[in-house]
Amino acid sequence: MAEPHIELRNVYRTVTRQAGTSVRSEILRGVNLNVLKGELITIMGPSGAGKSTLLRLINRLTEADSGTILLDSANIKDYDPRELRRRVGMVFQIPVVFKGSVRDNLAFGTKLWNTDADIEALAAEAAIPGELMDADAAHLSVGEKQRVCIARALANKPEALLLDEPTSALDKASAEKVESLLLRLQSERHLTMLWVTHDQAQARRISRHNYVLEDGKLREEHG
């Protein structure tokens, strides 16, 4: 049997919620998950269930209270955080671009191998038109900004991508383009993907492995 690429073992996470008074809430309670190399899984669940927290734990933007998270059978705490985040990239719901042109944004992501050819190839892979390369990134549409953020994540040559509702802030046409782009990249690069979505139809469309996070527990949805 193949070894999991990403594995969560009995992971717990408690957060403090502010609602007049501080309340400690256990949002992840003994979460277990095995994701194989090149597999795309979706994670659904109600608002506040901890879906984004689960993703952030995997590349250590947040730390688990207990339990173990493994990448290629090694504890993620044994990796340098920068190396871990290069290997496991993240794309957020609301795209944030850096000051400057689209080209500047992509050059920032390719500092380790920054050549014009690399930047052009990255733009082409992320379906960013050539005429946008010297445009001010701040003036792009939300869908265009999301493609820039995806390209920046790809610049680090990741093995896995954590996708936190990457299409939910987009209009229907832009969402379809970004979804198609991510599915193509997943296939061509053989990327492992954990994709959080609130859209059940999207989850079933893009993956055969759909999970639901509710009441701190993660379960696979069948049927």
Structural features, described:
Helix content is 32%, strand content 30%. The chain is globular. It has a single domain (6-221), classed as 3-Layer(aba) Sandwich (Rossmann fold), CATH 3.40.50.300. The protein has a six-stranded mixed sheet, sandwiched between helices. Strands 2-1-4-5 form a four-stranded antiparallel sheet, covered by helices on one side. The chain has helices at residues 51-58, 81-87, 102-109, 116-125, 142-155, 172-189, 200-206, and strands at residues 6-19, 21-35, 40-44, 66-71, 74-75, 88-91, 160-164, 192-196, 209-214, 217-221. It is of the alpha/beta class.
Order of helices and strands: EEEHEEHEHHHEHEHEE
Q: What is the correct CATH architecture?
A: 3-Layer(aba) Sandwich
Instruction: Assign an overall shape.
Output: globular
| Terminal CA distance | 24 Å
Question: What would CATH call the homologous superfamily?
Answer: P-loop containing nucleotide triphosphate hydrolases
* CATH topology (level 3) name: Rossmann fold
Helical content stands at: 25-40%
Could you tell me the number of beta strands?
Answer: 10
Instruction: Give the domain tally.
Output: 1
Tell me about the biggest sheet? 6 strands, mixed
Q: What's the rounded overall pLDDT mean?
A: 92
Model regions low in confidence, pLDDT < 50 over at least 5 residues: none
What is the number of helical segments per DSSP (H or I, 4+ residues)? 7
Assembly level = single chain
Based on helices, strands and strand pairing, what is the structural class?
Answer: alpha/beta
Question: Given this structure, which CATH class is correct?
Answer: Alpha Beta
Proportion of residues in β-strands:
25-35%
Major beta sheet, strand line-up: 6-7-8-3-9-10
The radius of gyration is 18 Å
